[in-house]
Amino acid sequence: MQNRLPTTYRIASVKKETADVQTFTFEVSLGARPGQFGMIWLPGVDEVPMSIAYDDGKQLKITFFAVGDMTKELAKKKEGDLVGLRGPFGTNYEWKKGQKLALLAGGYGAAPMYFTAHEAIKDNCDVHVFVGARSKDHLLYIDELGSLKGVTLHVATDDGSEGYKGYNVNQLSEMIEGGESFDEFLACGPEMMLKAVSGISSDKKIPSQLSLERYMKCGYGLCGNCVVDPLGIRLCIDGPVINNDICVQITDFGKYHRDDVGRKHEF
Amino acid sequence: MRVYCARIKLMNLSQKILNVEFSNPTVLASGIWGITASSWKRVVENGAGGITTKSLWIREHKGHPNPTVIANEHWTLNAVGLPDAGPQKAREEIGEYLKDKPAPLIANIVAGKVEDFVAIAEIICGLGPDFLEVNISCPNVEDECGKPFACSAPDAKKVTEEVKKVSGDVPIFIKLSPNVDDIGAIAVACAEAGADGFTAVNTFGPGMAIDLKSRQPILANKVGGLSGPGLKPIAVRCIHDVYKATGGKLPIIGTGGVHTGEDALEMMIAGASLVGIGTSIGERGQDVFKKVCDEMNEWCETEGVSEISELIGSMSE
Question: What is the pTM of this model?
Answer without folding.
Answer: 0.95
